[in-house]
C-alpha cells in the first residue's frame, strides 16, 4: 500500500515568487492536512481538507492557501514568498469517521526561500 | 485552547540505557486523542501510538511503553534498552475532538534523543 507522497522533495525559490506543493494521500484517505515545521515555531497546523472543502485553518496569513481535488489529492500554494516561509512542509492523510483514526505523514517538501 | 509541552529539548544516553520522554498536555475537552511520532533525519513523521482520552491503560510494544495519566495530564514514553536506531526527534501531539469532522494535531516542541554507542 503506497504511503503519502509529497512532491517535490526540495525546492528553492526567490522572495516574492509563489510556490505550489503537492500531496497524494493514501488510497481511501479523504482527509488531507498540511503542517509547517520550522526550527523556531516547531510543527504548526496550516489547514485541513475533506471532500474538496477546507474544514479547518490554522493561524497563517492569506498568502497560504490550498485546495483538494475530487481524487483527494491536495495542493498548497504560498504566494509572495518571504524568507520566513523557509520550512519543511508536511502533509498528512487520514480516514474520516466518528473517531480519530490517526494520521499518516509524507516525507515532506523542504522549501528554501532566498 | 490546547497545548502540549515537552520540557526535555534534548536527551543523550548511552546505548542499552532506559530513557523516558515526558509529555504534558492542556485541554478543556473531555474527549481527545494523544499521539507520539518519531522523526528521523529523513524528515517523515512516523506514527508510534494513538491513545483515546477514555483509555488510561498503559501500553507496551516491544521496547516501547507509554504511561497515560489523566490526573496529571501526562502521556510519557519510555524506551527500554535503547539502541542507536532510536536516535531521532520525538513529538507528542494532541488532537481535539472532531468538530464537524475537522481534524488537526497540536504538537509539542519535540525532544531530540541521541543514543550513543
| Percentage of β-strand residues of chain A | over 45%
Mind telling me the C-alpha Rg of chain B? Answer: 14 Å
Order of helices and strands of chain B: EEEEEEEEEEEE
Q: Please, what is the oligomeric state? A: heterodimer
Task: Indicate the topology.
The complex is a heterodimer of chains A (114) and B (117).
Chain A: E1 5-7, E2 10-13, E3 19-24, E4 31-38, E5 42-50, E6 53-57, E7 64-68, E8 74-78, E9 87-94, E10 104-105, E11 109-113
Parallel strand pairs in A: 2-11
Antiparallel strand pairs in A: 1-3, 3-8, 4-5, 4-9, 5-6, 7-8, 9-10, 9-11
Chain B: E1 3-5, E2 10-14, E3 19-21, E4 24-26, E5 33-39, E6 46-52, E7 59-61, E8 64-69, E9 74-79, E10 88-95, E11 106-107, E12 111-116
Parallel strand pairs in B: 2-12
Antiparallel strand pairs in B: 1-4, 3-9, 5-6, 5-10, 7-8, 8-9, 10-11, 10-12
Q: What report would you give on this structure?
A:
The complex is a heterodimer of chains A (114) and B (117). Chain A is 0% helix and 53% strand. Chain A is an all-beta fold. The radius of gyration of chain A is 13 Å and the shape is globular. Chain B is mainly beta and 117 residues long. In chain B, strands 2, 5, 6, 10, 11 and 12 form a 6-stranded mixed β-sheet that branches. The model of chain B has no long low-confidence stretch (mean pLDDT 92). At the A-B interface, strand 4, strand 5, strand 9 and strand 10 of A face strand 5, strand 6, strand 10 and strand 11 of B.
Amino acid at each position: 500500500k503506497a504511503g503519502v507522497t509529497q512532491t517535490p522533495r526540495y525546492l528553492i525559490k526567490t522572495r516574492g515568487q509563489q510556490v505550489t506543493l503537492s500531496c497524494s494521500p493514501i488510497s481511501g484517505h479523504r482527509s488531507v492536512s498540511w503542517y509547517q515545521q520550522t526550527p523556531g515555531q516547531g510543527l504548526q497546523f496550516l489547514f485541513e481538507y475533506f471532500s474538496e472543502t477546507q474544514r479547518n485553518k490554522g493561524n497563517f496569513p492569506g498568502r497560504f492557501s490550498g485546495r483538494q481535488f475530487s481524487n483527494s489529492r491536495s495542493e498548497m500554494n504560498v504566494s509572495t514568498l518571504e524568507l520566513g516561509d523557509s520550512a519543511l512542509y508536511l502533509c498528512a492523510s487520514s480516514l474520516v469517521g466518528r473517531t480519530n483514526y490517526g494520521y499518516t505523514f509524507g516525507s515532506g517538501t523542504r522549501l528554501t526561500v532566498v | 485552547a490546547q497545548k502540549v509541552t515537552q520540557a526535555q529539548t534534548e536527551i543523550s544516553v548511552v546505548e542499552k540505557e532506559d530513557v523516558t520522554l515526558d509529555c504534558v498536555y492542556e485541554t478543556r475537552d473531555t474527549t481527545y486523542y494523544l499521539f507520539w511520532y518519531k522523526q528521523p533525519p529523513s524528515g517523515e513523521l512516523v506514527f508510534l501510538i494513538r491513545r483515546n482520552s477514555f483509555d488510561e491503560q498503559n501500553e507496551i510494544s516491544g521496547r516501547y511503553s507509554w504511561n497515560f495519566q489523566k490526573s496529571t495530564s501526562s502521556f510519557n514514553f519510555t524506551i527500554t534498552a535503547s539502541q542507536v536506531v532510536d536516535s531521532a526527534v520525538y513529538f507528542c501531539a494532541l488532537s481535539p475532538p472532531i468538530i464537524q469532522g475537522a481534524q488537526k494535531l497540536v504538537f509539542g516542541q519535540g525532544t531530540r534523543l541521541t543514543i550513543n554507542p
